[in-house]
Amino acid sequence: MVRLKDIAEKAGVSTATVSYVLNNKGNVSEETRKKILKILDELEYKPNQIAKSLKTRKTSTVGVIVEDITVFNAPEIIDGINECAEEHGFSILLTNLRLYKRIGNNFSNVDKCKHLITNAVDSLLSKQVDGIIYIGVHTRNVTGLISEIDKPLVYTYCFADSGYSVNYDDEFASFEATNYLIERGHRKIALISGLIDSIPAHERFNGYHKALMKHQLILNPSYVKTGDWSYESGYKMAKDLLQQKEPPTAILAMNDLMAGGVLEACRELGIQVPQDLSVIGFDNRECSLYYTPKLTTMDLPLRKMGAKSMEKILRLLNGESETIEMNTKLRCRLIVRESVSSPR
Amino acid sequence: MVRLKDIAEKAGVSTATVSYVLNNKGNVSEETRKKILKILDELEYKPNQIAKSLKTRKTSTVGVIVEDITVFNAPEIIDGINECAEEHGFSILLTNLRLYKRIGNNFSNVDKCKHLITNAVDSLLSKQVDGIIYIGVHTRNVTGLISEIDKPLVYTYCFADSGYSVNYDDEFASFEATNYLIERGHRKIALISGLIDSIPAHERFNGYHKALMKHQLILNPSYVKTGDWSYESGYKMAKDLLQQKEPPTAILAMNDLMAGGVLEACRELGIQVPQDLSVIGFDNRECSLYYTPKLTTMDLPLRKMGAKSMEKILRLLNGESETIEMNTKLRCRLIVRESVSSPR
DNA sequence: TTACCGCACTTAATCGTTTAACTTAACTTT
DNA sequence: AAAGTTAAGTTAAACGATTAAGTGCGGTAA
């Protein structure tokens, strides 16, 4: 291990001078600087960031808490964080809560959940991270799960009543998808919703409704079905919808899994997609590319969300809190593939 | 920020005593201990791990370098690392190389690749990680990409000629899959290989071959096709195979994507799976669950690989290098779903 | 009585940096 | 010539922990 002191001794100067050279500070003659630079290179000096951090009280490290890293979408968000962090010399201290494996899918055990989160936060703070990004699972409101901390904190992919957050614009995305179908000539557009008690389900419903209204179309309640986000529920709801006396000519599913179920139902019922029925999904999940036909779906700005979250952290650290948006909503993008056409 | 010193002052003792209480060391009377514990709790003392690390030269942090976190399988491995790390009070400093986005898929630019890795390693060493785990993309040999370091280093999901590594047993997995088909009565078993220049493709071919030999079956060269791991290549090779004069009754694809292509080819050719043709995939990728029919496939021990890698790091730190296996190969597990039956 | 031991602490050095404050010499200004 | 300024360093105190070595005291053994 080569220390600053070793460099200083070899160069015949004080550690302060070496430090000044490393940080481009203070007054150091060109001659001395060159000499030190040379020795630095020769001895392959690598600064000990731990020591530096202790003195400067900055670690250039951001703590990332993710509810479950193996859950769909989390890696892309982390990737986005990583990209922005790296550009600014920051590292990522990752904490995976493994919430699904530990408390199941219903999150009813709020206490245990809170306990896990508190532990994670404490551990990160102990390691002196400069800020924390919390990655949720989109559908949940995490208000109150993290207690006040005196470092920058940004929530992404989840909702929080207070504090900074970064999400995508569910309502607008749903509006656009519906609008796209209408502009292609569809009038009988069905919606397969996810669980009704989630915020995104509400917002997406609103977007659907607003698009209908914009074109003076009446919302037909028998065209709105509620699934539970699963493939099977999409299959089931599609059968319901398509066996009505006046079936829809298009179905907007609130995620790609349910859209997959719709496609399977169509195969069974002998309905051709997109000739007889147009289908739009949501998420641009990888599998949507391997459906037959390839699914037209909404792509989520996941990397951008990560990058934006990190950017907020950096600006917060920079004391720019006045000028930072509390809740940022990023735009989704419709990926046009093969599952939509004009109605016959 | 509450420091050890603050606790000591409030308790009327020296910082040493407080430190001894915190670390359960030294001689401290029960009375003093209780008093300190109480104050520790009252002031919500959180040790500064940076300071502790500087003194102890241990950070309880493992650096994880992943070639691309958004690539299939990486999150599960990280999850496994995380689980084991957490159990032992370790944190994960994550470095995502984003190799695909930066140098494309061919990895021909070895220099740039090496440069990125060297930077990542240096950065982690600067932050004084106790060890490093390198997560590759399975198909590659990464020998020489990381230069010698004097800390524990474990490769997983990739091959390295020297050093510690953790992988799964490709050959045995392929042997088992083939054997399963044979035991169900198949004799005409085709193989759709991935790119032939990769280590796993070789090993899986060997497993396939050995299973045939075990049952005195002759390897029929026209039953072995080489794809490039993509859905489309699976589709194309399946068409080749199925339009031969004597088509196979079963196809083993070296990944789920190509198996998906096989299923699509079957739909087009009016071939019923599994009645007319049995199909086995490899990877247990999420999409395989949404194929029609649901795909029988090989599940990879990803979490276990992560956990095992972390375990090796810990044992290496513990000075147990004598007793640690250099290359660990973990078993895969066949997931039986709906795409295999006995031949007619 | 003296020597020794163990208990329950304290003292102070240390880990590898940073940085405010100081020093010294050379140069400028009046 | 005296005073002031500047350049190019050095000194030494932090940062918040750990820990070897030291201290003082009461008890025990020879």
UniProtKB/TrEMBL annotation, chains A, B:
UniProt domain HTH lacI-type: residue ranges: 2-56
Database matches in Gene3D superfamilies: 3.40.50.2300, lambda repressor-like DNA-binding domains
Alphabetically ordered keywords of this record: DNA-binding, Transcription, Transcription regulation
Protein name from the UniProt record: Catabolite control protein A
PANTHER family referenced in this protein's UniProt entry, alphabetically: HTH-TYPE TRANSCRIPTIONAL REGULATOR GALS (PTHR30146:SF109), LACI-RELATED TRANSCRIPTIONAL REPRESSOR (PTHR30146)
Biological source species: Parageobacillus caldoxylosilyticus NBRC 107762
Organism lineage: Bacteria, Bacillati, Bacillota, Bacilli, Bacillales
Gene that encodes it: ccpA
Chain ranges of the HTH cro/C1-type domain: 4-50
Single GO molecular function: DNA-binding transcription factor activity
Domain of life the protein comes from: Bacteria
Entries under InterPro entries matching the protein: Cro/C1-type_HTH, HTH_LacI, LacI/GalR-like_sensor, Lambda_DNA-bd_dom_sf, Peripla_BP_I
